[in-house]
TrEMBL record:
Lineage per the UniProt record: Eukaryota, Viridiplantae, Streptophyta, Embryophyta, Tracheophyta
Organism of derivation: Brassica campestris (Field mustard)
Domain of life from the UniProt record: Eukaryota
WD repeats: 81-112
Name by which UniProt lists this protein: Uncharacterized protein
Keyword Repeat set for record: yes
Amino acid sequence: MHRVASSGSNGGSVRARKEKKLTYVLNDANDTQHCAGVNCLDVLKSSVSSDQSYLFTGSRDGTLKRWAFDEDAAPFCSATFESHVDWVNDAALAGDSTLVSCSSDTTVKTWDSLSDGVCTRTLRQHSDYVTCLAVAANNFTGTEDEKDFPLWCLDAVLNNRLPPRENTKLSFFLHPCEGSNVQVVTLGKLSAPRILRVHKVTNYVVEKMVLDSPLDSLAIDGGPQPLFAGNGLLPSGSKPWQKLKPSIEILCNNQVLAPEMSLATVRVYIWKKPEDLILNYRVAIAR
């Protein structure tokens, strides 16, 4: 049973005084029954570990009660769960012995249903009446079921706990292929978003070569190969290494990478090692 009282008076003062509200619960002498309407109920059936069945009820008096019953005896109240300070609007059993309740006091509470009324957790994320709740069936295998309903989602809803943020960066080294004369100035280990495409790495190599390596041709596999792709025409006053782009290909584990492949895909399906990714580059071999 709940009462809300207020106290405080202006007492002739010009300054307004803040109204104070006090919420309290009055318990009847007979604690074996509810003193207001019952809003919800759930049943815990007997199991191998316990041959006793229980009925749980939630009431407008702010309490939940556990009723023991069987075929040979009349039901009786075996425990009262007190912590809510307003109507209990819904209750449901989760798992083997967890009772979950929600209330107009804006909280959701979990209880040890087989105890004498122990509240194990209070969730205060709501800012208004909590009028209903639903409990996911406890039949997840963590494999196929998780594809449809990830367990991290349930953990976030019930425990307000988000999964750790995945690292969106990927570290890698960029080296010339063995025997290649192409050199690019790098600062050791590089870092880039996991979704970065291989053609972006190619552009990086090209920019470094164009700015830092004024070479017209390179010897690859014993024979000279053109460094620059295109028709060979240069704008007036420009130098070859400033305007024309060399034809470069990126490799991993001696496999030429498709330009649209992401670094994350390369690491998982081609590199296949826990160490930092190693990429190689070379002037594209004419085919």
